[in-house]
Design goal:
0% strand, 9 helices, 193 residues, mainly alpha
Amino acid sequence: MEQALIKRLKNGDIRAFDMIYQLYAPKLLGFCLRYVKSREDAEEIVQDTFVALWANRESIKGDSPRGILFATARNRLINAYKSRINSLIYEDYLSSEAYSVGVDHSPSIEYDEFEKKVYDAIESLPDTQKRVLKLSRIEGLSHREIAEKTGLSLQTVKNAVTEGLKRLRHYLNGSEDVIVMIPALLSVLSQIY
């Protein structure tokens, strides 16, 4: 059965995709819930996993989607974990005494400068990317909720988030303290607005 579904999926059969989704979405959700605390985060990882399956359907190797789906979900879980760790490292860095050694201005002033750079970077984005990033990273809405709220397609929302984050990284790369800025970007966004 799965072999036939994979063949149909490779040919762009949306019904085959739906059947694979019905078969594996609950299992993937259970898998993700073991590693993330939020059901919403787990659902978003599952959603992103299936979007990746559809986007890469023509290059699927093998007879079963199980391995692909769980490997993709695992990679997305790892990326989410790394992102959280990096944010915590930055917060520790800001609060450590080593931060102020040899610096002739206070950490709060440097943080304010950092916050302004991030704010300027966000304001430099095209309107759609700016709006979608704020809804995603500040208000914590899922891609689907953003699509419903804005009237944009789900794929447009995902593309706007991806491209917006890429542009922010590029914008901030010109900064001297980019090593600290990039991991902390998402944690600062919620404090700016």
